[in-house]
């Protein structure tokens, strides 16, 4: 125990955890913005851009995340490996968010547009002030679930050598010699991921239960 969780190793692991959480935060925020745009275009634009959005979403949702991370790492010139790996995670997550948003949009009665139009709202105003607020209220549990998935997906970045939480644990693994210490490190990584994701899962369930009571 003392050989594994030295002050230096603990700080090293915490730094990796901070990197994982910062990447997750940036990816989630950008994915919600871009994913919402993709969902709107796929749902309401039936010509070129709608088909392009559909192709993008289906391409990323039906191919492995690690494949895109490796592709961005080796095929995109310039920039750092951290940026390239995070870019791949963002592009992948945005496709998932787009489908979540589209599902929420389809759950809104079409009569909402007609009611908004009768009050003088344009299509864009109807989306911004009436449709999207209702949509996000419905999909918040699904979005929070995707946040959990994104946090876990940052562990794939370890395959690119990015010093996130899992990779930090792997580096420390190279310094130990006992099998018990290996299990201790992996157990610690699993425990931290579990605590973070479990707390977010509780938040999702509480939100869902609160909404169910208000219906």
Task: Explain the overall architecture.
- This protein has 215 residues and is mainly α.
- Helix content is 80%, strand content 0%.
- It is built from eight helices and no strands.
- It has helices at 7-44, 48-61, 65-75, 81-106, 111-118, 123-153, 165-173, 179-214.
- Helix 1 runs antiparallel to helix 2, helix 1 (7-44) packs across helix 4 (81-106) and helix 1 packs antiparallel against helix 6 (123-153).
- It is elongated, with a radius of gyration of 21 Å.
- The mean pLDDT is 90.
Average pLDDT: 90
The amount of beta strand, in percent, is under 5%
Task: Report, as a whole number of angstroms, the end-to-end distance.
Answer: 51 Å
Q: Name the shape in a single word.
A: elongated
SS-based structural class?
Answer: mainly alpha
Runs with pLDDT <50, length 5+? none
Number of helices: 8
Backbone CA Rg: 21 Å
Helix content: over 70%
Q: Biggest sheet: strands, sense, closure?
A: none
Q: SSE order, as H and E?
A: HHHHHHHH
Per DSSP E runs of 2 or more residues, the count of β-strands stands at 0
Organism: Carnobacterium inhibens
Keywords: Cell membrane, Membrane, Transmembrane, Transmembrane helix, Transport
Protein name: ABC transporter permease subunit
Membrane topology: Multi-pass membrane protein
